[in-house]
Structure formats: C-alpha cells, structure tokens
Amino acid sequence: MPITAPSRARSRPCATRCSPFARRHGPRKGCLNYDLHVSPDDPGLLVFHENWESKEDLDAHLASAHIDAFRAVAPDLLAEPPDITLWTEVKG
After folding, report:
1. Is residue 91 part of a domain?
2. Are 39 and 80 in contact (CB under 8 A)?
3. What are the backbone angles phi and psi of residue 41, rounded to the nearest 5°?
4. Residue 38, strand partner residues
5. Average pLDDT per 10 consecutive residues for the chain, totaling 92 residues
C-alpha cells in the first residue's frame, strides 16, 4: 500500500540554503517523490513531502546511510526535531 510521509521541521538560520538535506541524492527504491517545501510566510518552516510505494520502502530509506548522515548533522541544521507523520490516500 502506498504511504505518504510528510515531515515538518524548523530550520536554523540559513539551513535551507546550505544544508545537505535540501539537495536530491538520487533515486531511492520505492520513492515516488521527495520534495522539500518552505513556508512563504516563515522561511524557517520546512515540509518534506514524500510518497513511497510501501511502508517497507520508507523504513529501508530511514535505515539508510544517507539518513544516518543527516541525523548526524540535524542538530546543527534544525531548531527542533522533525515531526514525521504517516498517511494513506483516501480513494473516493
């Protein structure tokens, strides 16, 4: 079942311009899209909008070296831990 995993984060000053998480790091297995958005009213407020083919693909991504590297620098880039929630699409 496809899963959507938006996460909300507050960056430290300048983090949106100089942070490694704002760049794409190539395709990830099962990743349908991975987009970074910034609030036009609050440039320190970020939303990562991700859609994955399955929860298992998301879990593999979260256990990857790429995310481990992000976790190592996150305290310097983010003002608070990200708030990650999981969603499934409601089909009508």
Report:
1. no
2. no
3. -95, -15
4. 46
5. 78 61 67 85 85 94 88 86 89 78
DSSP state of 87: B
Q: 59 lies in a domain?
A: yes
Cα end-to-end span (Å), the chain: 16
Range of the domain at 24: 3-84
Give CA separation, 81 vs 6, 30, 56, 74, in Å.
14, 25, 23, 8
Q: What is the CATH number of the domain that holds 48?
A: 3.30.70.100
Tally of domains in the chain: 1
**pTM as predicted:** 0.76
